[in-house]
């Protein structure tokens, strides 16, 4: 079925996959790195086409797969890091 929203959904999925690749490359070079969504968007992702929504979706998928850990810090913020137990 071809709808007006279909290209946007495909573009969004593509940007999420791109964000996942960017994150995994960053962690490959910086395996002990940890940051909030805001920090990751500001400092790790250098592609201006990748917005916070795509990065958040990528982090959620990587957490679900067990590749990334979601940590609740003492300041109440959520930080993400590579799962060292894999």
Map the helices and strands.
Blueprint (H helix, E strand, L loop, with lengths): L5 H24 L4 E2 L1 H8 L7 H13 L3 E5 L5 E5 L4
Antiparallel strand pairs: 1-3, 2-3
Content-based structural category = alpha+beta
Ranges where pLDDT stays below 50 over 5 or more residues in a row are 1-10
Tell me the CATH topology.
Arc Repressor Mutant, subunit A
Mean pLDDT comes to 88
Content of β-strand: 5-15%
Pattern of helices and strands: HEHHEE
Biggest sheet, spatial arrangement of strands: 1-3-2
What's the helical proportion of residues? 40-55%
What does this entry look like structurally?
- The chain has one domain (6-82): Winged helix-like DNA-binding domain superfamily/Winged helix DNA-binding domain (Arc Repressor Mutant, subunit A).
- Helices cover 52% and strands 14% of the residues.
- It has 3 helices and 3 strands, in the order αβααββ.
- Strands 1-3-2 form a 3-stranded antiparallel beta sheet.
- Helix 2 (37-44) packs across helix 3.
- The radius of gyration is 14 Å and the shape is globular.
Short description:
This protein is an alpha+beta fold and 86 residues long.
Characteristics of this structure?
globular; 86 residues; single chain; 3 helices; disordered N terminus; 3-stranded antiparallel sheet
